[in-house]
Amino acid sequence: MQIAVSGANGFVGRALCRVLQGGGHRVTALVRGSPSIVEGATELVIPDDHFASIARGNPAIGPVDVFVHLAARVHVMQDGAADPLAEYRAVNVQGTLDAASAALRGGARRFVFVSSIKALGECEPGRPWREDDPAHPTDPYGVSKLEAERELAAFGRANGMQIVTVRPPLVYGPGVRANFRGLIRVVDRGIPLPLGAIDARRSMVYVGNLVDAIQLLATRAEFTEGVFHVSDGDDLTVPDMVRAIASALSRPTRLVPVPVALLRGLGRLTGRIAQVDRLTSSLRVDISKLRDDIGWAPPWSVAEGLAHTVRAYRAEH
Hints:
Blueprint: E1 2-6, H1 11-22, E2 26-32, E3 42-46, H2 52-55, E4 66-69, H3 84-105, E5 110-114, H4 140-159, E6 162-167, E7 170-172, H5 178-188, E8 201-202, E9 204-206, H6 207-219, E10 226-229, E11 236-237, H7 238-249, H8 260-270, H9 273-280, H10 288-294, H11 302-315
Parallel strand pairs: 1-2, 1-4, 2-3, 4-5, 5-6, 6-10, 7-9
Antiparallel strand pairs: 8-11
Helix pairs in contact: 1-6, 3-4, 5-7, 7-11, 8-9
């Protein structure tokens, strides 16, 4: 197949392009700014953040069978924009619809949109999130992702295009940045963490598992549309996550059992209650729909994914 991938030079995008090409597919890598050399792919530089140019056919993405949309304004903890929701909507809603218009212009039969579990909410409803649960996003990023999902579904119905939405939780793997990389660094340095009393479970997805699921949803011959959750299928507690990272690093685990109520009190005092709530609240996703309806199973276990992630971290240090 000829498959266009937006955000192709990002953390997930590069991994996806490699997997698609390894499966014999031809990739058009859509990147913003200067070319970044996505090896083996045909690169196309998009001159604007909102994809309005390719929606108008300039530049034309050429004939494509499937469009995978990864590009987004990502979640940030402290947004300095004057109107964060407007900024998120411009890129994540209008930009996504522009990408879908470009896909339609290019003849794509299917559009795969990588959303986020944050489109449903930040804390689970007492059990793993299912695809059809009522959505209650809590921040502008989650709101914009949910709006994009709904607008895309309407676009697909109006234009006869199959719309597939993938909602991952936390994504990790070689090259991961931000908080997950920071956690690896702290564990590697042997710094004690006050997380030993947390029993919350958090779904994660190794980047190799995520791109394997995306490839299957993008390329399967059967009619495919709808929303699908994806994860490693093994939801660790926060302390178990730290222990697994420590084991992969061959470091001792240094966990201090600080009561959760005290952690939340400190979070309120320091203005970091949102971060503390994320650590101390469960957030799991149910992947039975992807498993039962599509026949997908994660190729890598959590232990394998963390080992690959730590090995790449070690190689950089």
